[in-house]
């Protein structure tokens, strides 16, 4: 009897702390009659909470042990099922994410956790991950508790690092190990790197010895390198065997790794020789040797190649997969296009977030203090640059007091320079990411950008000068602002090209700091040119 009370207490405690996965695990190992007895001892709120965690396949057997009235009440609570049409809609691309999120939030607010589980079950793991990251923390944890353990690992692999770590910590260690054991090795490596060190070590130790050795090897490579992208699931054959031998070997395997469009060819020592396309393998005579039909032009990717260069290589050569080799040209893995697509997406997210001084792995619902601390650094840097621009304006305080019109027109000069500089900066950062901008062609690109700045500077200097004259009736003010705009646009183009090149050479991401520096340059030069010319001329 004491053991029963202890079990009931443990279930209630797990419910109150939101450990729904733990509740479901305990209920799965209990006899239906025992679950019925437990339900009868609870108050209405706890009774419904327990019933929401009962496996749908066991509902009938549990209801049979309850009183008719209580059975009818709980059976009505099970009516929250999804129709075939709704399930198809939840699984389709056309079903908008906002609709899914609204349905999940409504179900969570009503305590209809079974419905949440069914909605999430009908969605692709990537969609589930996106939905979870769109929910506030409390709702996210409740929804996460309804994701089946055998699907949880795949969902974790699609989450950003911060969200992944927090949700993984909501799971019992043994459940986490079960959840991730079916992941591809490259996804498992990414997941281990996202988890807290101790939890990641537990996951690593729980894998079998053969996989553990591969994981340790893959974890030794930097995350932003070819080694960090690669998987070890490649199929390799020797160059001296015949096609019929290779075909027999593939039949024994029964299944091929995903994204397999070619087999890797390596000699007895494991040195990479080339690749054998499946399209070639199934169309040549069986007695042909692999060495005679393999493609030796498919490049092997060095394991330490930066991931952005890997992505560029896949793009330029239209690759679906490519071999990865070590310093001795030994074949150690392969990279597939799905991992490259993920890298490209992450790079674009990183560039966009870095321009605002943010981390693309950060949780959108991170705690207020954490988010404030992250943003405070860049706000502080921006404040310093703003004071620098204010100091320049202060140098010409006497001129501003004498000619009030200058204060009205001053923002126009800074704004025009900022826009022109941002255009050049964006173009150069994109060119650098695609490998189109290097030291060799920087001078030619500078000439082109300066030419554009000069032409646009003259055109808009004339337009703004004319408007200023019409507004204030002073030709001198028109001439001063026109000249200042031309000067600022020229310096903006110069800064837009030089700043990202210098930052890149210093090992600083241009997308992270380029915008702040550019804004400072255009503000300072614009104000100095405008107010300096006004001091001399007026």
Automatic annotation (TrEMBL):
It comes from the Bacteria. It is found in: Cell membrane; Membrane. Residues 74-99 are annotated as: Disordered. GO terms for cellular component: plasma membrane. It is a multi-pass membrane protein. Its main location: membrane. The keyword Oxidoreductase does not apply. Gene3D superfamilies: CBS-domain, MgtE N-terminal domain-like, SLC41 divalent cation transporters, integral membrane domain. InterPro entries: CBS_dom, CBS_dom_sf, Mg_transptr_MgtE_intracell_dom, MgtE_N_sf, MgtE_transporter, SLC41_membr_dom, SLC41_membr_dom_sf. PROSITE patterns: CBS (PS51371). CDD domains: CBS_pair_Mg_transporter. Residues 294-352 form the CBS domain. The keyword Transmembrane applies. Keywords: CBS domain, Cell membrane, Magnesium, Membrane, Metal-binding, Transmembrane, Transmembrane helix, Transport. The chain crosses the membrane at residues 376-397, 403-429, 450-473, 479-503, 515-537. GO terms for molecular function: magnesium ion transmembrane transporter activity; metal ion binding. Belongs to the SLC41A transporter family. Homodimer. PANTHER family: MAGNESIUM TRANSPORTER MGTE (PTHR43773). Acts as a magnesium transporter. This is Magnesium transporter MgtE. It comes from Denitromonas halophila. The gene is mgtE.
């Amino acid at each position: 009897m004491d053991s029963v009370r202890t079990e009931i207490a443990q279930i209630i405690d797990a419910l109150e702390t939101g450990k729904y996965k733990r509740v479901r695990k305990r209920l799965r190992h209990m006899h239906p009659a025992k679950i019925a007895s437990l339900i009868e001892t609870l108050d209405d709120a706890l009774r419904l909470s327990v019933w929401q965690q009962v496996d749908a396949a066991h509902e009938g057997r549990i209801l049979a042990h309850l009183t008719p009235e209580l059975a009818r009440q709980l059976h009505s609570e099970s009516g929250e099922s999804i129709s075939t049409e709704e399930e198809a809609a939840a699984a389709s691309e056309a079903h908008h994410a906002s609709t899914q999120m609204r349905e999940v939030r409504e179900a969570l607010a009503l305590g209809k956790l079974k419905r949440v589980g069914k909605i999430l079950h009908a969605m692709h793991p990537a969609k589930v991950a996106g939905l979870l990251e769109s929910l506030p923390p409390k709702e996210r944890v409740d929804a996460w508790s309804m994701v089946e353990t055998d699907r949880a690992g795949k969902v974790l692999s699609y989450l950003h690092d911060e969200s992944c770590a927090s949700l993984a910590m909501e799971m019992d260690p043994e459940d986490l190990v079960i959840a991730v054991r079916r992941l591809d090795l490259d996804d498992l490596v990414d997941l281990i790197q996202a988890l807290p060190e101790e939890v990641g070590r537990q996951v690593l130790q729980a894998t079998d010895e053969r996989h553990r050795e591969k994981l340790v090897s893959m974890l030794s490579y930097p995350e932003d390198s070819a080694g960090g992208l690669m998987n070890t699931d490649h199929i390799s054959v020797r160059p001296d065997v015949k096609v019929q031998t290779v075909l027999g070997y593939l039949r024994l395997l029964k299944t091929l790794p995903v994204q397999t469009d070619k087999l890797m060819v390596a000699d007895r020592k494991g040195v990479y020789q080339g690749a054998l396309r499946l399209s070639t393998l199934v169309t040549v005579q069986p007695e042909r040797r692999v060495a005679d039909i393999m493609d030796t032009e498919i490049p092997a990717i060095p394991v330490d190649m930066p991931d952005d260069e890997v992505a560029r290589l896949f793009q330029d050569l239209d690759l679906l997969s490519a071999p990865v080799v070590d310093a001795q040209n030994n074949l150690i893995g392969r990279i597939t296009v799905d991992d490259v697509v993920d890298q490209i997406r992450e790079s674009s997210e990183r560039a966009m977030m870095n321009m605002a001084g943010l981390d693309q792995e950060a949780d959108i619902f991170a705690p207020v203090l954490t988010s404030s601390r992250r943003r405070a650094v860049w706000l502080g840097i921006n404040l310093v640059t703003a004071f620098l621009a204010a100091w320049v304006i202060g140098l010409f305080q006497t001129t501003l007091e004498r000619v009030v019109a200058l204060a009205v027109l001053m923002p126009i000069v800074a704004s025009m320079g900022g826009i022109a500089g941002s255009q050049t900066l964006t173009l150069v950062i994109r060119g650098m990411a695609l490998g189109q901008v290097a030291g060799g062609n920087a001078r030619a690109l500078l000439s082109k950008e300066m030419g554009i700045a000069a032409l646009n500077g003259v055109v808009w200097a004339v337009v703004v000068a004319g408007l200023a004259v019409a507004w204030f009736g002073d030709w001198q003010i028109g001439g001063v602002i026109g000249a200042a705009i031309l000067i600022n646009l020229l310096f903006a183009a110069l800064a837009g090209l030089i700043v990202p090149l210098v930052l890149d050479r210093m090992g600083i991401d241009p997308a992270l700091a380029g915008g702040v520096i550019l804004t400072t340059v255009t503000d300072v030069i614009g104000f100095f040119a405008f107010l300096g010319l006004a001091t001399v001329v007026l």
